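Progress note, sequence design subtask.
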């Protein structure tokens, strides 16, 4: 416990007063407990030499011009092809949404408002509770998937 307090105190010294010019002393009492202090007036205190702090600036990222043009050999897609791809994507997302909604309906029916039927191997109530908890997690995950798919479809319009 005392080591934890000493570690926290040392962390506080480094974090809170990183730029202070004060001295730090390590004091050990008669029971061998270590304590860090900003004065060395107590018996058993020795000054601690702390390393200097080095600050290195992060790399600068060059800004791109707002009106930069694509290279002339950059591949381009004509509008009709892009519209076809967007339509296909929308249909795929709608199919996934329909599948997830059916999956959610099945999960909720099996969940039975938090009281699913017990199985033969669930004579132990803990196993039953674990399955119910897993079912809740599955339902929540499916609901989040449905929300995400609806957002994706809305972004296509």
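Output:
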């Amino acid at each position: 416990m005392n080591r934890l307090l000493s570690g926290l105190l040392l962390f506080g010294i480094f974090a809170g007063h990183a730029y202070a010019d004060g001295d730090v002393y390590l004091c050990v009492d008669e029971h061998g407990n270590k304590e860090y202090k900003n004065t060395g007036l107590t018996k058993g205190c020795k000054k601690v030499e702390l390393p200097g702090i080095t600050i290195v600036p992060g790399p600068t990222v060059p800004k791109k011009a707002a009106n930069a043009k694509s290279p002339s050999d950059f591949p381009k897609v004509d509008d009709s092809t892009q519209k076809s791809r967007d339509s296909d994507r929308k249909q795929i997302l709608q199919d996934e949404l329909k599948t997830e909604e059916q999956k959610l309906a099945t999960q909720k029916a099996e969940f039975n408002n938090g009281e699913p039927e017990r199985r033969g191997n669930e004579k132990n109530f803990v196993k039953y509770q674990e399955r119910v908890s897993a079912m809740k997690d599955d339902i929540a995950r499916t609901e989040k998937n449905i929300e995400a798919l609806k957002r994706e479809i809305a972004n296509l319009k």
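The chain has two domains: 2-48, 79-156. Work on this subtask will continue into the next period as scheduled.
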